[in-house]
Design brief:
The chain is of the alpha/beta class and 199 residues long. The protein has ten helices and five strands; from the N terminus they run E-H-E-H-E-H-E-E-H-H-H-H-H-H-H. The chain folds into two domains: 8-121, 3-Layer(aba) Sandwich (Rossmann fold); 126-198, no CATH class. A five-stranded parallel β-sheet has the order 2-1-3-4-5.
C-alpha cells in the first residue's frame, strides 16, 4: 500500500476497464485516481495531482482538449498521453511531457510515471528538454526517414532541442540514472532510444 506522502497519479480513459487496470497496477506505489472522461478529468485535477496519464481519443471531450484546457488554466502537472492514436507531426506543438502508444506494459507505466515525477523536480528548461526529446523519439519511431527529412517542423524541433541541451550540459553531466541516460543520449536517424520506447 502507498504511504501517506506518496505522489498522486490521475488515470484518464473513457474505457473504465482500461483506466481501472492501469490504476490497479499503479496503486501499490502511488495514490491513484481515475476519471472516465474529459470533464471528469478536469474536475479531478488539482494541486495534489503529480502526474496525469491521459487517453487521447475520448468522446465529447478529447484528450487533446483536456490537455489544452489544463495548460490554459496554468496547470503545470506532468502529462503523458497514453493512447491508441498513432502520433503525427501535430504532437510537436502539444504541451504534453511523454507519449505512450497502447498497448502499454506495466513496466512502461511505472517507468513513465517515475521519469515524470523526477522531471518535475527540475526547472522549466529540464522539463522542456525532456518533452522535446520524447517528441523527437516518438516521431522517429512512427515516421519514415524521408518524412522526417522533408518536415520543416521536425527540423525546427531538433534545433529547439539542441538549443535547450546547450543550456543543460552541466545538469546532464551530473545525471547518472540509466533510464534518463537512455532518454538523453544523442538522437540519430534510427537511435537505440527508439527501440527502447517502443518495446
Amino acid at each position: 500500500m502507498p504511504s501517506g506522502d506518496t505522489q498522486t497519479v490521475l488515470v484518464v480513459d473513457d474505457e473504465p476497464d482500461v483506466a481501472d487496470a492501469y490504476a490497479a497496477q499503479l496503486r501499490d506505489r502511488y495514490t491513484v485516481r481515475t476519471a472516465y472522461g474529459g470533464q471528469q478529468a478536469l474536475e479531478a485535477v488539482d494541486e495534489t495531482v503529480d502526474v496525469v496519464l491521459l487517453d487521447r481519443r475520448m468522446p465529447e471531450q478529447s484528450g487533446d482538449d483536456v490537455l489544452e484546457s489544463l495548460r490554459s488554466k496554468g496547470v503545470e502537472t506532468r502529462v503523458a498521453m497514453v493512447t491508441a492514436v498513432d502520433p503525427d507531426f501535430d504532437v510537436i506543438e502539444m504541451p504534453f511531457d511523454d507519449y505512450l502508444t497502447k498497448p502499454v506494459s506495466r513496466t512502461e507505466l511505472f517507468d513513465t510515471v517515475e521519469r515524470l515525477l523526477t522531471c518535475a523536480k527540475y526547472d522549466e528548461q529540464f522539463q522542456e528538454f525532456y518533452s522535446l526529446t520524447s517528441k523527437l523519439a516518438t516521431l522517429q519511431a512512427n515516421k519514415s526517414q524521408s518524412e522526417l527529412e522533408n518536415s520543416e517542423e521536425f527540423a525546427e524541433l531538433t534545433e529547439r532541442r539542441e538549443n535547450v541541451r546547450k543550456q543543460l550540459d552541466r545538469t546532464l553531466s551530473e545525471f547518472n540514472d540509466d533510464a534518463f541516460a537512455a532518454m538523453f543520449r544523442e538522437l540519430n536517424p534510427r537511435p537505440p532510444l527508439t527501440g527502447e520506447l517502443t518495446d
